[in-house]
Every structure is written in C-alpha cells, then in structure tokens.
Amino acid sequence: MREFAKQNRVLFVNSPGIRMPRLLGDRFAWRRLFGKLKSLAKFVRLAEENIWVFTPIAIPMISGYGRSVSWINERLLVWQLKLVMATLQFRCTILWVTVVVAKDAALRLKRKLGGYLVYYCVDNVPAFPGVDGSYMLELEDELHRTADIAFYVNHALLKQNLLRNPLTFYTGHGVDYTHFAVAQTVSLPVPVDMESIINASGGQVAGYMGEVNSVDIGLIGFLANENPNISFVFIGEICESVEVLKSFPNVHFLGQKSYRELPAYLQFFAVCCLFYKTQSAFNNYRNPKKLLEYLATGKPVVSVAILELEYFSQYISIAQSYSEFELLLRRAIAEDSPIDRQRRIEFAEKQTWDAVAEGIASKFPPRLLEGGTDGVQAGAGVSKAETRAFPIRQ
C-alpha cells in the first residue's frame, strides 16, 4: 500500500478479529486485547502521506455463532466505513480484502458503491489455530468466487483454489531492499544487548527475526544443546511460552525492536533461521515475509521444510529433520561463499515492493484502469485508496 500510495490515497482498515481471545487460557491474549483497544482509541489517523489507518469497532468471531456475528459486523463495518469515507471525501471503487471475516461488509459495499473487489490471500486462514475452520472456509469460498480478481502469495494454495475464479494469480511478497541491505556489512553500531552474545560465541550467531509464535521449541532446544558454541538470538515479540528454552545459556530472547533498529542486529547474524512447526497446516502454507529480508542481507538461510520454500531452494537450505537442520546450520556458518552470498543479494534486490505492486497492477483488466476510477480498498481487513493513477508505472 505504500507503493500504491505514491499515486493514490489509501484508507487501511485494521482487521476485525477472526477469533475470540481466550483470556483465561492464553496469557498472551491480554496483550493482544490491550493492543486492539489502543488502536480503537485512535479510530482514524493519518499514518503517512496518503495513508489513513482506521480501526473499526467489531465483534470477534465466536465459535458456533459465526453467522450471527458476521451479520452484526457487516452492518457495523459498513456504517463506520461510510462515515469515515464521507469525512475523508473518499470515493471507493476498489475494495482490497485480505481477511475473510470482512467478506459480508465487502460484498455489501461492492453492491452499494459499485466497487471493484480484490481478494488478496496471504495465509491458510481456515487452518489458523482457534478459528471455526469450516466457517472460515465458507467465507473464503464466497469471497474468492465473488472477487473481480484474486491474488495468492502461496503456490500450493493457488493451485488448490484456482478453479473458484479464473482471474486468480500468484504474487510473491516484496522487500524493502535498501533498508535491509545495510546489514550486508558491519557498518552500524553494535547494539548493547548484542555485545556479550557476540563475544561469547565468537560471532557464531544463528538469528531469528519476527514474532516468536508457533516455532518448533523442540528443534531449537536440540540445536542449542548440541551446539553450545553457537548463540541463538531471537528478535521479536514473544507470543508463546518459551520458558524451556531460557534454561539454555546460548539462547537469547532480545524482545521486540523497532523496524529502524533491525539491520543493526541482522548485521551480526552469521546465519538466519526459520524455525516454524512443520506439523501445522497453517505453518505449512506460510510464505514468510522475513525470508526476503534475510536474503537482502546476503546471509545464508536455513529453514524447516514448508511448501512455499521449495520455490526458493536455490537460495536457501531446507532441512527435513532436526539432524539435517543442525548439519546445514553448521555448514552455513563455516562454508558460506562470496558467490552464494552475491546470488542471494541479486535475487532479493529484484523483489522490491515497487516491483510487486507494479506486477499486481499489470494483472488488472484494462476496463478498471481506463477513465475515472476513484478508489482502492487495501489492507489487512478492508481499506480504501483513491486511484485515478492506479498502475505504479504508467
């Protein structure tokens, strides 16, 4: 949306909840709840030039009551969106939907306003833990069939759902290359919380960046136990119990860092890792955005085997077992070559968000781009942008 906002106005609508928080059984739910309440308090704000962010009032999905909640949320969301759009003087012609629980509101807006509907699928939502999978599948099916055009960031999901809608395409993620390329050399100051780690491991740091959630605790524990000379560093918010890993002296959770700070940490990773649980139907259909950010640093990458990563196999190492992960990890630290490093960098350099946005715009039928189109819906739920110049490149 930042790329589209260079020529268009964007209203980014934060996602309504896809599940009811388990406040008694999930000690991280309170943190998510307070974060949502904080966003609600802001309601609508100008986040960046041409980008407004709106957090609607909505009821989280309650298992067994999905249709009733959807009926209420549809009316709540449409009423709020029409109010915000009128206030900001938006004219909506493109609805860009990523979260399937916004389906009813999006279809209603499409009927009322003549909007052009885009479905942008980034995850296997029906397999998300804690949701009503069958109802989510029903929502996704109708949303995809009704969409004027659809994009999937996962090849396997695309193949499974291609028959729903003939105008369905693959689009990969992008990367803020110039931001992460800074980590190709050690040019930034050493973060204070990395100094002792670097000294203790002699620079042998296996790093993970992003939310610590649904990672394979057993795999990380195995690697830490077998490789006491390697430091395992996690940068990101902790959203699951990792207490068992904190007993290892070479495992370090440094917490969430700002986007601006990330290259300062990544520059000291000897190898970047993806530790997802592979027994999860949700994880198996991931296309991790952090992968391209890793590759932009030039660092070697070792990952567990999930479906989409097979398409990156010439740039990363994929392990089928704990022992193979350990072997590939050691090899990445000891044997990485300048030629492999350059191949990773050159690949990542071509995968910018600008290129992704241009590729998406090129798939739109000419009738949408001719004349006076006035809106783009974009974002995590439903959002809008004014777009007479929708293609990034004219």
Briefly characterize the structure:
This protein is an alpha/beta fold. The chain is built from 14 helices and 14 strands.
What are the main properties of this structure?
394 residues, alpha/beta, Rossmann fold, eight-stranded mixed beta sheet, six-stranded parallel beta sheet, 14 helices, 15% strand
List the helices and strands and how they pair.
Elements: E1 9-13, H1 29-42, E2 44-48, E3 51-54, H2 66-88, E4 94-97, H3 103-113, E5 116-121, H4 133-146, E6 149-152, H5 155-161, E7 168-170, H6 177-181, H7 192-201, E8 205-209, H8 217-226, E9 231-235, E10 251-253, H9 262-266, E11 271-274, H10 290-296, E12 301-304, E13 317-319, H11 322-335, H12 338-349, H13 353-363, H14 366-369, E14 382-386
Parallel strand pairs: 1-3, 4-5, 5-6, 6-7, 8-9, 8-11, 9-10, 11-12, 12-13
Antiparallel strand pairs: 1-14, 2-3, 4-14
Question: What would your notes on this structure say?
Answer:
With 394 residues, this protein is of the alpha/beta class. The protein has two domains: 4-173 and 353-386, Rossmann fold (3-Layer(aba) Sandwich), CATH 3.40.50.2000; 177-349, Rossmann fold. The chain is 37% helix and 15% strand. It is built from 14 helices and 14 strands. It has helices at 29-42, 66-88, 103-113, 133-146, 155-161, 177-181, 192-201, 217-226, 262-266, 290-296, 322-335, 338-349, 353-363, 366-369, and strands at residues 9-13, 44-48, 51-54, 94-97, 116-121, 149-152, 168-170, 205-209, 231-235, 251-253, 271-274, 301-304, 317-319, 382-386. The strands form two sheets. The chain has an eight-stranded mixed sheet with strand order 2-3-1-14-4-5-6-7, with helices on both faces. Strands 10-9-8-11-12-13 form a six-stranded parallel sheet, sandwiched between helices. Helix 8 links the parallel strand 8 and strand 9. Helix 2 crosses helix 3 and helix 10 packs across helix 12 (338-349). It is globular and about 60 Å long.
